[in-house]
Specification:
This protein folds into 2 domains: 2-165 and 350-368, Glycogen Phosphorylase B (Rossmann fold, 3-Layer(aba) Sandwich); 167-348, Glycogen Phosphorylase B (Rossmann fold). The chain is 41% helix and 16% strand. It contains 14 helices and 13 strands.
């Protein structure tokens, strides 16, 4: 079976990591994969470095006829069994190519996040007749996407949870967070790994730190935030100084092999306002790092409050701070959460389950084609 994976991304984030982890899992069960991506994109670079088959084209707009022509030429020459679309702009490109050239290839789209446009173009492309299946990363994503997908097409929606490549944890980071950023060993280290985007709501992260330190009086702690800076950085970074948290807070920017750094954290904190089901949840499960998080999107499908983690409402920094305080003062509860989450990971959220569940969809599409 040959799968062509379409991605219109240029940078690197959770979506791209999930894509290459899926490819790894599929290769393990003898499914052949090719990445259709842009030249000089992060995916092309990764594919070169990791011996993943790829076909790259010059960067063009998704609606450009050149993109449609490149895609048609590849499909006609190589005749993949399934086209798997991984980004919104690639949906646009596929629809245009299929209308013009009639690709006649079973096609699925992976929907990772909650939210997105409800424009006429979006409604048209996501309801396009020749997209045969829409694979949602969580039940929450599936339910949210029903506002875009017409009721007549709801049968196309299904849920396949992402999974992580456990072997990725073997690539050890050389950064010692406490030494590199001069954080006292006596401090409880509370970490957050997220690029600086609005969906991650890092304003609430800083407000939670302020509540824990200045209202609840927990002083033997240090917060560390790891992730790429961006336009949103200017909305939350000034709050660190405003709340007099400079000595309690470190912002590192992007660091390589961030998953390996989870073992250096005592607790992991997520304050997102919008999520599909973030891969960092699974990474924290693997590294046995207890989690306090908002109940954004599909997160409650992986974490049950009081069972294997702590949940708070979106933007509720007071509740997040109280949950952190409870875990800080209850070491046996930390250990219980870590062990239960680690067990759950191997039951539901590795590339083995991801690849097998996705392969099952591929087989059904080919059989019904």
């Amino acid at each position: 079976m040959n799968i062509l994976h379409l991605s219109g991304s240029t940078g690197w984030g959770g979506n791209e990591q999930q894509l290459v982890d899926l490819v790894y899992g599929l290769e393990k069960i003898h499914v052949s994969n090719t990445l259709f991506c842009f030249k000089d994109s992060s995916l092309e670079i990764y594919a070169k470095e990791n011996n993943i088959k790829y076909y790259s084209i010059p960067k063009v707009k998704a609606y450009a006829l050149k993109y449609a022509k490149f895609l048609n030429n590849y499909v006609k020459k190589h005749q993949p069994d399934v086209i798997h679309i991984h980004t919104s702009n690639s949906v646009t490109a596929f629809v245009i190519a299929d209308i013009i050239y009639k690709l006649k290839t079973p096609t699925i789209f992976s929907k990772k996040g909650i939210g997105g446009s409800t424009s006429k173009l979006s409604i048209f492309k996501y309801n396009y007749k020749n997209i045969n299946k829409i694979v949602c990363v969580s039940k929450a994503v599936k339910d949210a996407f029903k506002t875009v997908v017409k009721s007549a097409n709801h049968h196309k929606l299904c849920v396949v949870y992402d999974g992580i490549k456990v072997e990725r944890s073997e690539h050890k980071s050389t950064v010692n967070l406490r030494e590199h950023f001069s954080i006292e060993r006596s401090k409880i280290l509370i970490g957050n790994i997220a690029n600086h985007t609005r969906a991650k709501d890092l304003v609430t992260l800083v407000k939670t730190a302020n509540e824990l330190v200045h209202t609840l009086g927990i002083k033997n702690i240090h917060f560390i935030q790891i992730g790429k800076t961006g336009k949103y950085s200017n909305e939350f970074l000034p709050l660190i100084q405003k709340y007099n948290l400079d000595s309690f807070f470190t912002v590192t920017g992007f660091l390589d092999n961030a998953m390996d750094l989870l073992t250096q954290l005592d607790l992991y904190l997520m304050t997102s306002e919008r999520e599909g089901l973030p891969i960092t949840i699974y990474e924290a499960f693997l590294k046995k790092t207890p989690i306090v998080t908002t109940a954004a999107g599909g997160i409650p499908e992986a974490i049950i409050h009081g069972e294997n983690g702590m949940l708070s409402d979106v933007k509720d920094f007071s509740s997040l701070a109280l949950n952190l305080k409870k875990l800080i003062t209850d070491k046996p509860l930390q250990e219980s959460f870590a062990e239960k989450s680690y067990k759950l990971l191997f039951e539901k959220f590795t590339t083995i389950q991801l690849a097998e569940n996705t392969f099952s969809i591929y087989k059904d599409l080919i059989k019904n084609d």
